[in-house]
């Protein structure tokens, strides 16, 4: 990740941007489509790839495909167009699959590839991915993905590959790693958080046996993938887990969030986060609980000594350490003397105790680095330098900008004022913001900074500091709502910064910097890498590097031992991967089906057909029906989702959709229409075995009707519509098998 997969994919697209070829691109998001089109237009590609959406009518899409070229298309549209023969499948030059690690046996992309290979044996298929960790999850994941893609060749390019390593070594940027020591209070807080997490992990091991103990260690907890690991293992049995286990999992999430807050944000924000948990416990928690209690609104870790240390030290970072007993006695004596003097008529000035407001150590280092760049620019002939500062998220960028513009103490005092007096602070903020906006409008209308002849406008999702006269500073987060991975690459290419400050560690962005320097060898680049020494932040970064390296080494070993069949690419006629016969092997004889009811006489098989609603192609079921040898005809249906026979109509509902349609009454109207037009209306309720659900509460089914109970509403539905049949299926595979039996 970060080695420039988008650059390689863009070059591949360039090869097929011609009218004499017909190429489809699947697997791209809207942001990725816009990025590739803009980049290709900037490179002078004419015509660029076209985007096929539902706004284009079906007949127009057919004419568009016959013109040739390269198309971005969603999986649903391409599947429907292939099944209705709007796409000349035999004329397709090839398919490009982006983010190939998402391909599964029943995904829409896999269905497209199957339809393509059945009728086109000469076209190409190319898959691309930059997520090696996703291929190491599960058993034999790499081979399964290659099987679904009909691919025989695998190319691996890790960071330690010889060509890549030699290229980066020749043009390595000037990296200065700054190991920043944490303050004594931050060290104490981090130690308390470690102790609390270890205690929660021990409680989690004792409270449930559904979790693999290998993942319950501190190394996995500090990684961002820990929540997903827990979710995957516990989701199938979530209703069987005790309340205490769920509470411990929630506590670990909270403590992991505190670890991020400690290194990324200021002391006031961190204290507010800690204090809000205690305040929530005080208001809504069970006051009579003990440490071993199994019923608690918030975690039991709040009663531990480490939690008390966490609260006291985080409070001391803001307000200062509480005075000791001797100092308290001295203060009381001074107050008594001042009171007597006031009674005698003597004016005494009250000493004002100022809060401590401990600053984030990284802020001071960033300011020092900027001063060093301003004083000692090694390339003054290139003009005023551009400095890019990359933080973890938008909030960290905003706080760092305030620190560099108004100062750390003023910013923390402002945050403390917001905390202590939110209403007064909001009123003063509105007046300040209005005056500042007026000043900015006047200022920006007359002066605008430029870098290398390019005007430095406000960057979407980032910040620009114009307070420095002799250099320009851009702040941008590497994680957020928009696709920051592409935007950071654009910023590097557009503004070409000579100095980059990594406020927070990001493995992907480090690789992006290496690629930028390797493709711009003559451009000077110095990178300041800021890390807290001997901290969880440093440990997390090193673990992410190690985890990716281990994943690639496993892929290399799997590639060396992988046995790939000759017919894997799907080009031969009798390919078992393209077989649509779901008949068991014990019922097969020389490639034909034996009908035992006719004394073993051979019977001709007739291809069945199912009419499927257009909107259903977002699900997995149409692909699985097609694999079982049943033809599919996509039609926009007004009643039902699947029509199996002229008499059988099926309305498919997932559990969430079932609950929603029962609550808003939509299912009643759907059942009314099905019973009016079909003799055998069916409601198919499809759930996932890996996702737990239950329709009843712990008290079981009651004889009394309850308007909020799902079972009561289902009972009413069957009473109103006696012809309606309800079928339950544990998975889409079972639904496809059931449809075949009904046919």
Describe this structure in words.
The protein is of the alpha/beta class and about 750 residues long. The protein is built from 27 helices and 21 strands. The strands form five sheets. Strands 6-13-12-7-11-10 form a six-stranded mixed β-sheet, sandwiched between helices. The chain is globular, with a radius of gyration of 32 Å. The chain starts with a helix and ends with a helix. About 25% of the residues are buried. Residues about 285-295, about 345-350, about 435-445 and about 590-595 have low confidence and may be disordered.
Percent strand equals: 5-15%
Percent helix range: 40-55%
By DSSP, the count of extended strands is 21
Q: Show unreliable segments.
A: 287-297, 346-352, 434-447, 588-594
Query: Major β-sheet, in short?
Result: 6 strands, mixed
Task: Kindly report the spatial arrangement of strands forming the biggest sheet.
Answer: 6-13-12-7-11-10
Give the radius of gyration: 32 Å
